Amino acid sequence: MSRPTVPPTAAPTEVVRHDGRADRTLVHLVRHGEVFNPEKVLYGRLPGYHLSELGRAMAERVSVAFEGHDLALLGASPLERAQETIAPLAQRTGLPVTTDVRVVEAGNRFEGQRMTGPDSALKRPSSWPPLWNPLRPSWGEAYETIAARMDAALREARTVAAGREAVIVSHQLPVWTLRSKLEGRPLAHDPRQRECSLASVTTFDFTGTELYAVHYAEPAGELLTDATKVPGA
């Protein structure tokens, strides 16, 4: 497999689009928009976490960014925030949404707990045993497992949308883990270094069955603030 090119550090707002070549397929992995989470907990796979008002605006920006693209497939994680992010694009295009559990958020033993601030779970000795191996990581789903399921979803989307484009809404850690795997980086990482902001688009650019390049864009970049740029689900 050809090693993907590394996109520039200054992320554009425009999503790369298909150029009409029959052997080219674009699979766009979108991170969902901002979630309403006033308690500031790590919500992970917990149900009941929906987009905030800002998150809905981000989802609308994403739908506009794909106007005129040759879309053949829409997909999303089963979690509410992912389904709500893809909804405006589905309405705009009339395409059905395929729910794909393989692109769901990573499992995490600290779901429902605060991970920052004076009452952070990380400050309690009872929380320390699961933290013994950050390279796996020991507190949640293994990076290799995440990469494998995301890669399977990516390859299937490439096959279904062959010669056109697919859009799948997922979550920050799964998208970044897959990108790191395919770009040859270690999967263990500092979450602050992830290039995967809210409502961002990471595009996997295939020539035939080979991954040629990876592109990154932030169509909702104008809506991002310092608070919304922090790592999260």
Automatic annotation (TrEMBL):
<dbReference type="Pfam" id="PF00300">
    <property type="entry name" value="His_Phos_1"/>
</dbReference>
<dbReference type="GO" id="GO:0005737">
    <property type="term" value="C:cytoplasm"/>
</dbReference>
<dbReference type="GO" id="GO:0016791">
    <property type="term" value="F:phosphatase activity"/>
</dbReference>
<dbReference type="InterPro" id="IPR013078">
    <property type="entry name" value="His_Pase_superF_clade-1"/>
</dbReference>
<protein>
    <submittedName>
        <fullName>Broad specificity phosphatase PhoE</fullName>
    </submittedName>
</protein>
<dbReference type="InterPro" id="IPR050275">
    <property type="entry name" value="PGM_Phosphatase"/>
</dbReference>
<dbReference type="InterPro" id="IPR029033">
    <property type="entry name" value="His_PPase_superfam"/>
</dbReference>
